[in-house]
Amino acid sequence: MSVTSSDSASHSGALEGSSAALEGSNAQRGLWSSRLAFILAATGSAVGLGNIWKFPYVTGENGGGAFVLVYLLCIAVVGIPIMMAEVMIGRRGGRSPVKSLSLIAERDRLNPAWKLVGAIGILAGFLILSFYSVIGGWAISYVGTTASGQLTGQTADAVGAIFSGLLSDPTTLLAWHTLFMALVMVVVVRGVRSGLERAVSILMPALFVLLLIVVGYAMTTGHFGQAVAFLFQPDFSKLTTSGILVALGHAFFTLSLGMAVMMAYGSYLPKNISIAKTSMTVSVIDTGVALLAGLAIFPIVFANGLEPGAGPGLIFQTLPLAFGQMPMGSLFGTLFFVLLIFAAWTSGISLLEPIVEWLEERKGMNRTVSTLGAGIVCWALGIASILSLNLWADFAPLGFVPMLEGKTIFDLLDFFTANIMLPLGGLLVALFAGWVMSREAMEKELALSPGMFNLWLITVRFITPVAVAIVFIYNLM
Ligand code: PFF
């Protein structure tokens, strides 16, 4: 029962505008086979480069414990309620994010412009995938680098030179970016049940096991205690205002929120499954993986006298150095980067899925054509990000705007998606659920006790929008 073009395309017209669309559309589309399948897929989306690459480096840059505490608070207060809202909207509409929002708007006689929330999300996901795939390509490249033993016994300078050598070589970057995008497309083209679900049910547990192996190694370095203290002993003197805002923004990115992904996945969620419990499970697993990644990385960093605040290069420059020095480093290093590819792959799949779903429905394309079309355009856009790392490194197309001075195309894509589109999408989702959507419909979908429902409603009405608005305004300033 995979989602095929004929399933969704042929039904979308017939069901349009009728209330049956809201209740019955899932029946024709193919659903997740179980709650576990949805959790696997949503976790596959949430756990990615954000957890293993970004979380350790932003934690390192922001001084550790206190930042981690704020990040955990953001997950609980902002992340989980918005995830519940996104999954709820997706399941209520039962279609692609844009279609779901317009069906709900039509049925509840709301302003049809709300469907733009889905459109912003789809566009953001598409733009993110273009450079996410390039970074996924770095991870692929490092499997070869570590496996071949080139890192063994290398100095920091030599390891740094390997990384800058990769960034300066557009042909190699293009090859790995192409491979990453092809991997994503191969899964998406096969549809939700036969492709994605099967892939994540193998990839996610494998990822856990691989991460535990690296943590197991990290425990033997003699610096595990120092890493635990760094991550979990808050030192509030190290927490800055910008650190708080980075923590909030990262909570969005890491849970795949504000980009319609959870709406798209929620549309395949059977009606009898608890949205609150599933959202909570996904968030807890995602947070657990980020913390495990921290526990895997920081002992190695400390044991080798490396710098926790080294920035985005942390795992690609600092860790390979550590892997080059440790016994069996080639093996552990290879495993680590394989793990990173798995994580990035399942996230990449979730970034492509919403746009493919939308093309199928809206343009009546079949899944193969829509996947190829969206994937190839996204791949082509990724070339601009690749060139930004080398030949176009000095090209700042919007450099005349003071805030965007010196930003390459890669930087701009990252800036506009993470700092503008993502908080905007999240804010609008919170406003839609908190203030616009009918209470009755939400009560029915969420099926919470009255007390829990009110707690959730107050959060999405007041707490989430204010918190998100602060990040949004801060980023614009
Ligand atoms: N959550 C993913 C990560 O942490 O790497 C990235 C991501 C995937 C963001 C899908 C947004 C998204 F829609």
TrEMBL record:
Where is this protein localized, as stated in its record? Membrane
GO terms assigned for molecular function: symporter activity
List the InterPro entries: Na/ntran_symport (IPR000175), SNS_sf (IPR037272), YocR/YhdH-like (IPR047218)
**Annotated GO CC locations:** membrane
How does the record say this protein sits in the membrane? Multi-pass membrane protein
Positions of transmembrane segments: 36-53, 65-89, 116-140, 173-192, 199-219, 239-268, 280-302, 331-352, 372-393, 413-435, 455-474
CDD domains in alphabetical order: SLC6sbd_Tyt1-Like
An example Pfam family from this entry, by short name, is: SNF
What keywords were assigned to this record?
A: Membrane, Symport, Transmembrane, Transmembrane helix, Transport
Name where it mostly resides: membrane
Q: Which family does it belong to?
A: Belongs to the sodium:neurotransmitter symporter (SNF) (TC 2.A.22) family.
NCBIfam families attached here? Na_transp (NF037979)
Q: What is this protein called?
A: Transporter
Annotated organism of origin: Marinobacter maroccanus
